[in-house]
Design goal:
Length: about 130
Amino acid sequence: MIGPNLYIGNGKNIKIGSGCRINENVYLEKVTLGNNVLIAPNVSILSRMHAFDRTDTPMSLQGYSQERAVTISDDVWIGRNAVVLPGVIIGRGAIVGAGAVVTHSVPDFAIVAGVPAKIVRFRDPMGASHVE
């Protein structure tokens, strides 16, 4: 399922597994989505950022950083308004809380939330959650 207003930076850089659900107003750059990934509305998955190293040149004229692909593993849920930054790998079965900004890779079955996103607990493959 793909909702309305999906923005794809470059279609040849997007891989989508089976059973994925991508809601409205999602922005995708260079990303690989595993199977059964849930992406809530207004999520941004970025593979590059504006360059900003020089102070003698406006940021809008400095171009972009080197592109770094994002990988979203199988059975991941990314909550509404979350942002995933370049180079991040989100492990299998992980959950990204609404509004989180994911700056580092996320282990399998972790639940992350906040700005920047931090692990709040892990999902138990046997069905229960526990606090880290």
